[in-house]
Here is the input.
Amino acid sequence: MRITRRFAFEAAHHLPYYDGPCFHPHGHSYKLRVSLDAPIERRTGMSIDFTELDRIVREGILARLDHKNLNDVMENPTAEHIITWIWKELDGKLPGLCELRLAETDDCWVTYSGEPVEFR
Here is the structure.
């Protein structure tokens, strides 16, 4: 069973190694989707209590990113780096974590499933 919960947070950043408009400080209304693949517990009929999922993400991620300057959290806060940072923070805290999706706008997002990241 795949369980997904959507979250939102506001944050500012700039991309120090990018030669373009995002080099300058700006902000986004980020949308984060957290998905788990987990079996249904026979007794409760649930894979995970959405309240518990909400608490883990709010305490571990949103409390550290919402209304913050992401450059204070990581050196180069591209969407790709932000989503891999979130994965590392949630991995081991959410059994069955299988996919994250982070949208900077309605039209632009990254999806990550924990695979090794390739650099060129």
Remarks:
- The chain is about 25% helix and 30% strand.
- Residues 10 and 29 are 5 Å apart (CA to CA).
